[in-house]
Amino acid sequence: xPDLSRxxxxxxxGILGALLLVSLLAREDITVNAMDFTLGLQVFEHGYTVIDxxxxxxxxARTHQFPLLFRVTLRxxxxxxxxxxxxxxxxxxxxxxxxxxxxxxVVRFLLRALALAFVxxxxxxxxxxxxxxxxxxxxxxxxxFFALLFGIAYYTYDEAAFREPExxxxxxxxPWLIGVAEEALAAVQDLDAKLxxxxxxxxxxxxxxxxxxxxxxxxxxELKVLHISDIHNNPIGVSLAKQIAxxxxxxxxxxxxxxxxxxxxLEAELLRGIEEIGLPWIFVSGNHDSPAVIETLRNLExxxxxxxxxxxxxxxxxxxxxxxxxxxxxxAIQIPSREQYKEVAQKLRLKIDQAEVAPPIIAGHxxxxxxxxxxxxxxxxxxxxxxxxIRVRDNALMVNAGTTGGAGIRGLMAQGELPYTMVLLHxxxxxxxxxxxxxxxITVNKLDSGFVLERQLLHQPRPPLPLQQQEGEFPRNxxxxxEEGS
Length: 486
Hints:
six-stranded mixed β-sheet; single chain; alpha/beta; seven-stranded mixed β-sheet; Purple Acid Phosphatase, chain A, domain 2; 39% helix; 19 strands
C-alpha cells in the first residue's frame, strides 16, 4: 500500500512552498498605454481587488470569492502618451484596446504566478525528500492548488463591484468628487449646447445697442478687443470666448492668465481648442500657470505669449504689452509680493519705452502688476479676483474681465454662483492713437444660461493734444514718436 502520510506531507510541502514563493515573487511591472502599473498578489485575504494610487490612497472592492487579494499599484503616468490618448480620433476604440491589453497582461501575470507555484512546490519537495519523484509531486500540488484558487476567483469575479468601492486616504473624498464631476459633465453638455443660442441672442442685443451713444460720438469702435481671464481648465470658457469673439467680430483676444488650475502640461494640452479660434490670442500667465503651460501655448500658431514684451500688429496698427506673473516661472501656486510685481513691472516698462509702437493695452494677471502703470495713458487689463470691474485710476483705465471659466471646478464649490464673464472693448483713435470708447461687459449665468450685456460708455483719460494737432488729420499710432526721434 502506498504511504498516505508521505503523500499528504509531500502535497502539503508543495502547497507551502508554492505559497512562500508566490507571496515573495508574484510582482510584475506592466504598461497600459500612458500608465505604468505594478501587479501583485496576496494569499489569505478576503477576495478584494485593491488599486493603490500613491500618495492619494487606496480604492478597493470585494470582487471575488476565496482568500486572494489582487493589487494594482499606479507607478507613473506618462504625459506624452496621455496627450496622444486625449487627442485620439477614435477614443472608444483606443480605450477598448487598453482594456484588452490590460486583460492580456493580467493573464500573463497569473500564468507566471502558476509557474512560481510549481517551482516553489518543487523546491519544497526536493528539500524535504531529496528525490525527483517526490519533488515533482510537490510541484504539481502547488501548481494545482493555485490553479484552483485562480479558477474560483475567475468564475466569481464581478467587475461591477467597483460601482460601490471603498476609499481610504485622501481619495475618501472621491465619491463626493465623482458625484460633482458627473453633475458638472451633465451641466457642461447642456450648457455648451445652449452657448451658441446665448451668443446669437447677445449679438441681437448688441446690434440693438449699436446706436447707443452715437450722438455723443461713442458708436461701435474701429477695433475690438475681447478681454478674458481665469478660465481654470473649463473648456466651456474657451467655447464661450470663441463664440463671442466670432459673433461680435473681435479683432484680438487678450487672456490675462490662470488658464489652468495646477499648471501641468496635461491641463495645457486639454486647452488646445483655442487654436481653432484663429484670432490673435494674447496670453499673459497667472499664478496658476507654469513653464509647462507657457511652453505648450507658445507652440500654438495663433497664440502670443508675453512674459515681459510687446506684441505689435502692423496690419491693425496696434500693440499689446504684457508680463507673466512671477509665480508662473515655477510650479508653486502662490501670490508674489508687491516688490516682485514691481520688479516685473520695471522690466516691462523698459520694453514699452523701447517699442516701435506705443501699446494702448498693458496686460497682467494681478492688479499689483498693472497698477504700476496707472500713471500712463493706457488700458490696463487684469484678472485674478474673478469679479468683473471697470474703473479709472490716475491716467489709466483699469479693466478686470472676472472669470471666463466660471472659476473652473472651484466655481462649483462656491457658495454663490460665479458666472462666466468677459469684456469686449471698443477702441477708436485720436491724435495720440488708440483709446477705449465703449466696454460691453458680458455675463453668462451657469444655472439658467441667462445672460446680461451691460454697455458702458468709457471716459478713458487722454493727454491734451499738441496745438499743431488740434486741427487736421490724426497721425497713425506710433508716427508721433517716429517724428520726435527723426
